[in-house]
Write a structure and sequence with these properties.
globular; alpha/beta; Purple Acid Phosphatase, chain A, domain 2; 8-stranded mixed beta sheet; 7 helices; 5-stranded mixed beta sheet
Length: 308
């Protein structure tokens, strides 16, 4: 007897980044399970999808990682608009900006307009990392230390699985305990948000720092879709334009949804909407017509699972 097909979660847009295919730390099995569970009109691959830094040494590739790529290409072939925004670990593909790989378009950065009219800048974010830009050797050394942490993380979670315990990110835990790392994350978020504001955007979506987040930074919506090495998270938009972080760390397919944040679109972004575009069909209130909610619209940061 055939098993009934599982229903898929429908999204208007999905953002994933920092998958690091080609490394042992990549949680390709979690990502494949997530991709199989969704349908989306738009899929943004926000950099570091393939870790080209590992091409010369330490390269690791298995069948599950092949299946991830095949799933993405299948989604593109079936009508999902897929954009690939290269990051620093797959910067080789920046030489192919403007070209297509099958049905996947390679872009340096891209604008996304949400269903409720907000204009978001989508970019990887390494452009704002001083170490990556000015001290590449130090970035690569840090990458090696990070790789060792991920290997230890895998061992810890292998033991936890045998004990029937849920996934827990040791590397994320250590990162958040380090004051210098916490300060770096805060500085990165501020600089990215300032750049988005100065260029007329309502918000920005990026990756790079492996820290999923949705929050307002001085009135600009800052979104980071996280990674698929530590936290296994994606950013998604529903049909009404609400954004949320989806955490996919359970092989059974459970989803942990954070509270969602809505930011009033700017006058410029509303005025720039093309009436012929499908987004314009959605009634978007002007800023002075939007009711102020009782609670502040800022969503709490993504919470790490407590260590057991």
């Amino acid at each position: 007897m055939e098993q009934p097909a599982k229903s898929k979660t429908r999204h208007r847009a999905v953002w994933i980044s920092d998958v690091h295919l080609g490394t042992r730390g990549c949680k390709a099995d979690f990502l494949l399970d997530f991709l199989k569970s969704i349908e989306t009109e738009q899929l943004y691959l926000v950099g570091d999808i393939i870790d080209m830094w590992k091409a010369r040494s330490g390269w690791f590739w298995n069948d599950t990682q092949n299946k991830v790529l095949r799933r993405i290409l299948k989604m593109a072939n079936k009508g999902t608009h897929v954009w690939f925004v290269p990051g620093n670990h797959d910067e080789y593909f920046r030489d192919f900006v403007g070209m297509r790989f099958g049905d996947v378009q390679v872009v340096e950065r891209i604008d996304h307009v949400t269903a409720d009219g907000r204009k978001l800048l989508v970019m990887h974010g390494d452009q704002f990392d001083a170490i990556v830009c000015n001290h590449r050797w130090l970035a690569m050394l840090g990458g090696r230390v990070y790789d060792w942490t991920i290997v230890l993380n895998n061992w810890v979670n292998a033991i936890r699985r045998r004990l029937g315990m849920p996934y827990w990110s040791l590397s994320q835990y250590l990162k958040l305990k380090a004051k210098s790392a916490t300060k770096m994350i805060g500085t990165f978020e501020q600089v990215v948000a300032d750049y988005a504001r100065s260029h007329g955007y309502d918000g920005v979506v990026c990756g790079h720092i492996h820290k999923a987040e949705i929050r307002s930074v001085d009135g600009v919506l800052y979104c980071n879709d996280g990674d698929w090495v530590e936290s296994c998270t994606a950013l998604v938009e529903d049909a009404d334009g609400w954004l949320e972080i989806v955490e996919w760390t359970d092989r059974k397919g459970s989803v942990v949804r954070e509270e969602r944040e809505q930011v009033v679109p700017s006058c410029d972004s509303v005025a720039s909407l093309d009436p012929a575009d499908d987004v314009a069909e959605i009634a978007t209130p002007m800023p002075d017509e939007v009711a102020v909610p009782d609670q502040p619209p800022v969503a709490p940061p993504v919470r790490e699972p407590a260590p057991v």
